[in-house]
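User: I'm writing a tutorial on reading structure tokens. Could you give me a worked example: one chain, its sequence, then its tokens, then a sentence or two explaining what the tokens reveal?
Assistant: Sure. Here is the example chain.
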Amino acid sequence: MILLSSVKAIRKVLSLRTYRMLFGAVTVVFLLAYLLIPIFLVPGNSLSLQFFVLRPLDYVLFFVMSVVTALLVVMQVYVHRNTKKKRTLAALGEGGVSVYSALFAGLLATAACSSCIIGLVGFLGVGSTFFILEYQTYFVLGAMLIVVVALFFAARRVNNDCSSCNVALTHKK
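And here are its predicted structure tokens:
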């Protein structure tokens, strides 16, 4: 039931040409972000080194996280543009927090080497960096769970199934 509701919402949003194009563009942006942010944050890192360090599984993770996060962004944009109520700062913040959380979770989950992780979370210290590397699989699963749960709640809003937020959509095209 939950899966069918989410698929219905995704189909509804992606049935519109504008949102399909936005989805493709945002997917590419997230793919590039996951690949290029470690290059810019780690001194001496380059694109060729990044391609050397990454495993085939990392590319799959980049793609999956990019697609799911792009779906989340597109659905949040759809909800924002189709909300009947006055757009409040709280409503904007709610959508923005889920997107930024997904981006940061994806960056942590897809970091492949210790130098990349140190560049991203160096403020936490060396011990936590090695902890993240040791349990990277769990971070990937946690990041995917965060994004999927956020996607589920966005789908509820698209389908007007959310009784707690009381936001009705106008379904403009």
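What the tokens reveal: The chain has eight helices and no strands. The chain has one domain: 2-158.
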